[in-house]
Automatic annotation (TrEMBL), chain A:
Catalytic activity reported: beta-D-fructose 1,6-bisphosphate = D-glyceraldehyde 3-phosphate + dihydroxyacetone phosphate
Enzyme's top EC category: lyase
GO process terms (BP): glycolytic process
Pathway: Carbohydrate degradation; glycolysis; D-glyceraldehyde 3-phosphate and glycerone phosphate from D-glucose: step 4/4
PANTHER family according to UniProt: FRUCTOSE-BISPHOSPHATE ALDOLASE
Family: Belongs to the class I fructose-bisphosphate aldolase family.
Pfam families per the UniProt record, alphabetical: Glycolytic
Coiled-coil spans in chain: none
EC nos: 4.1.2.13
InterPro entries assigned to the protein according to its UniProt record, in alphabetical order: Aldolase_TIM, FBA_I
Keyword annotations: Glycolysis, Lyase
Name used for this protein in its record: fructose-bisphosphate aldolase
GO molecular function: fructose-bisphosphate aldolase activity
UniProtKB/TrEMBL annotation, chain B:
Catalytic function, reaction form: beta-D-fructose 1,6-bisphosphate = D-glyceraldehyde 3-phosphate + dihydroxyacetone phosphate
GO biological process, alphabetically ordered: glycolytic process
Stated family: Belongs to the class I fructose-bisphosphate aldolase family.
CDD domains in the record: FBP_aldolase_I_a (cd00948)
Alphabetically ordered keywords of this record: Glycolysis, Lyase
The protein's name: fructose-bisphosphate aldolase
Gene3D superfamilies, alphabetized: Aldolase class I
Top-level EC class: lyase
Example GO molecular function: fructose-bisphosphate aldolase activity
Segments forming a coiled coil: none
Pathway info: Carbohydrate degradation; glycolysis; D-glyceraldehyde 3-phosphate and glycerone phosphate from D-glucose: step 4/4
Length: 385, 389
């Protein structure tokens, strides 16, 4: 069967970017989700990972809030406890299945300290065919770029990551998957929001140029950037949502052509409440000012899960329905924010003032190449979960 | 870039710190130019004003040699005073400022006055029309290419811009000429020139009009081919503008509409609009306040009908889809004037009618009949050879 045409993929992208809907990023690799489960006293087994994701995918009302869910490859092949494949559970709720297709970060050869590129291109084409057969409709690939105070990511890091993103996107479109292009500028560091804005402009513009060169159709693409916020170690007081909105919109207007169907912000270390309020402010400002022709929505991981995991931790079966209800409430809050209509109390229980969902370096992926010896990584520190 | 995780891991564990220390002095280019530019607020206001909905630009910046060729078609000698009188007719047209937000001038014209001694910049400002200035010094053939050109004018550009700002100019224009099938050499050379010019103009208080013209040329190439090359060129231009720290909120774009080759059947306004809008949506971020299409050989009526079709094809466009017309506003005006004082009022009337028709088209409200219906293409040969051509 022939893969979808570009027009058909553009329709999928438009549906993913539908007004008032966003994405649940539940594509944490085995190692990453394992660390979060273990922090909550839950053993990192395939069954526990499955049960946790089932909570999320059967939460009330997600069909009204999510256009899609991004999954890790293990999860794409898993089922609900009644045997229904997750892909089918989601499809019945009107939610499309997406798949993380990159295989993690590696140190960037010739780059500055801490800079990375992303693995996975060599096996991507074959992997995409497999994922399409399993029911995936869209894909996601994460590049990570570092900002230090007064300094953008290096030219090499920007170039290599932009080209990898473009290559990934082209392969996906050829295989019939809508690519989410994620050039994440890391929130780690002491940099100001101004520095972050300049670095974002540089990185995203380079990605857009690389996408064109590689023949990627922007109409059948989504962008997943970080909102313009200061670094986690910046001493300045955190900006109000209105300031985050103004700074973020200014950057997006400067570098994202209108043809891109949707801008799906990541939450990347912001608390659940911060992420919702910032997204809401972005949409309110966009409505007020105009000149924001793309959907401005969410693709949150921690921003939709931290409180769920906190409730479910240490007593999984007895608090399952409470955890599920929290997942639904978080989904609804962010769907409202995507319409610029968030109001009232935020359901989060992990967003006390001064809290953060920032995680320090999580180490290299070990599930991809078990024989690899990763460099020693600093101890993982989770806050607020 | 293929390397195994294992060797990469081992390498990073032993990585020397040289690379990191080398980077400490690297500045964030975009941040420093925007923050330290004292003109930035004015530049933004200027660009937004010129892109006011319902208005466009009068391109009257023909060099002396080109102006001479035009005057010759109505039997007028190419003297400084005749050039002055011709521009006086344009700029003093009553009510022009309702439809025109900016007028681009040639160097000589920026310093000229009316016969009564009023400086042109003052005449224009009184009309609510911002004075602009062509700052490139013409085209040169790139050696080793098949007649492809590079635009000259970067040397001493900063000083020239400062002098023009002092005289009252508030925006500038630089025309790069490309074609369907441009070589990579030509694309990169022209994109670089545009970006570097734009950077220098902003640094000296002038809003740069960035003009990457894919000329309407001979051949049977399709409208899709034109659209592809327009996208390609726009992509390189936007990339370099970003790399050079040019603030997009304070530029204007002057592109071609997408048209098939001269020897191919003419495209309908709806098709021109479809491909042109698609090209703009794919390549121009919303921060650019105005996209001012050149007329580039289209007839006066075609220029208006196509402009109207653009609004219909893109009803909520984030940028103003408007005009920067030269020949499409001047051709019939010149013919009506023919150098005779007794024709001046009638000529000015034609100009204002043409400006109004295009203003209405910009608002998506053009209904016709056109002031100059049924005209043919208004073509001109490409001129190379340096300043004054």
């Amino acid at each position: 069967m022939a893969p979808p045409s570009i027009d058909e993929l553009a329709a999928v992208a438009a549906a993913l970017a539908a007004p008032g809907k966003g994405l649940l990023a539940s594509d944490e690799s085995t190692g990453t989700i394992g660390k979060r489960l273990e922090k909550g006293g839950i053993e990192n087994t395939a069954e526990n990972r499955r049960a946790y994701r089932e909570l999320l995918y059967t939460a009330p009302g997600i069909g009204g809030a999510f256009s899609g869910v991004i999954m890790f490859k293990e999860t794409l092949g898993q089922c609900a406890s009644d045997g229904t494949p997750f892909v089918e559970v989601l499809r019945r709720a009107g939610v499309m299945a997406g798949i993380k297709v990159d295989e993690g970060l590696v140190p960037l050869e010739g780059g500055e300290e801490g800079e990375t590129s992303t693995r996975g291109l060599e096996t991507l084409e074959a992997a995409c065919r497999q994922y399409v057969a399993q029911g995936a409709r869209f894909a996601k690939w994460r590049a990570a770029l570092r900002v230090e105070e007064g300094r953008c990511p290096s030219d090499l890091a920007v170039k290599v990551n932009a080209e990898q993103l473009a290559e990934y996107a082209a392969i996906c479109q050829a295989a019939g998957l809508v690519p989410i292009v994620e050039p994440e500028l890391l929130i780690d560091g002491p940099h100001s929001a101004e520095t972050f804005a300049a670095a974002s402009e540089k990185a995203i513009a380079a990605c857009v140029a690389a996408l064109w060169r590689r023949g990627v159709a922007l109409e059948a693409c989504l962008l997943k950037p970080q909102m313009v916020v200061q670094g986690t170690e910046c001493s300045a007081p955190r900006a109000a949502p209105e300031q985050v909105a103004a700074a973020t919109l200014r950057v997006m207007r400067r570098v994202v052509p209108p043809a891109v169907a949707g801008i799906m912000f990541l939450s990347g270390g912001q608390t659940e409440e911060e992420a919702t309020r910032n997204l809401d402010a972005i949409n309110k400002l966009a409505k007020e000012e105009g000149r924001a022709p793309w959907s401005l929505s969410f693709s949150f991981g921690r921003g939709l899960q931290a409180s769920v995991l906190k409730i479910w931790s240490n007593a999984p079966p007895s608090r399952a329905s409470e955890a599920r209800a929290m997942a639904g409430a978080l989904a609804e809050a962010n769907a409202a924010a995507a319409r610029g209509e968030f109001a009232g109390r935020h359901p989060s229980v992990t967003s006390a003032p001064g809290a953060t969902l920032h995680e320090t370096w999580r180490g290299w992926r070990t599930d991809v190449d078990p024989a690899a010896a990763p460099p020693p990584a600093p101890a993982l520190a989770l806050a607020g979960v | 870039m293929a390397l195994s995780a294992k060797s990469a891991a081992a390498r990073s564990a032993a990585a020397p710190r040289g690379a990191a220390s080398r980077a400490r002095t690297v500045r964030v280019a975009a941040l420093s130019t925007e923050k330290s530019n004292p003109y930035m607020e004015e530049l933004r206001a200027t660009a937004n004003y010129i892109a006011t909905r319902g208005k466009g630009i009068l391109a009257s910046d023909e060099s002396n040699a080109t102006t001479g060729k035009r005057l010759a078609t109505v039997g007028v000698d190419n003297t400084e005073d005749n050039r002055r009188a011709w521009r006086e007719l344009l700029y003093t047209a009553p009510g022009l400022g309702q439809y025109i937000s900016g007028a681009i001038m040639f160097d000589e014209t920026l310093f000229q006055s009316t016969a009564g001694g009023v400086q042109f910049v003052d005449v224009l400002k009184k009309q609510g029309i911002l004075p602009g200035i062509k700052v490139d010094t013409g085209l040169e053939v790139i050696p080793g290419t098949d007649g492809e050109t590079s635009t000259q004018g970067l040397d001493g550009l900063g000083e020239r811009c400062a002098r023009y700002y002092k005289q009252g100019a508030r925006f500038a224009k630089w025309r790069a000429v490309l074609k369907v099938g441009s070589s990579t050499t030509a694309i990169l050379e022209n994109a670089h020139g545009l970006a570097r010019y734009a950077q220098i103009a902003q640094a000296n208080g002038l809003v740069p009009i960035v003009e990457p013209e894919v000329t309407l040329g001979p051949g049977t190439y399709t409208i899709e081919e034109n659209a592809y090359w327009s996208e390609k060129i726009n992509s390189h231009v936007m990339r370099l503008l970003n790399e050079y720290g040019v603030v997009l909120d304070a530029i204007l774009l002057k592109p071609n509409m997408c048209l098939p080759g001269l020897d191919a059947p003419t495209a309908s306004p709806a098709d021109v609009a479809k491909y042109t809008v698609r090209t703009m949506l794919r390549s121009i971020p919303p921060a650019v306040p105005g996209i001012h299409f050149l007329s580039g050989g289209m007839s006066e009526e075609e220029s208006t009908l196509n402009l109207q079709a653009l609004q219909e094809a893109c009803p909520n466009s984030p940028w103003s889809l408007t005009f920067s017309y030269g020949r499409a506003l001047q051709s019939s005006t010149l013919k009506t004037w023919a150098g005779k004082k007794e024709n001046a009022d009638k000529a000015q009337d034609i100009l204002v009618q043409l400006a109004r028709a295009n203003s209405q088209a910009q608002l998506g409200k053009y209904k016709g009949p056109h002031p100059v219906p049924g005209g043919g293409r208004i073509l001109q040969a490409l001129r190379t050879g340096g300043p004054g051509k």
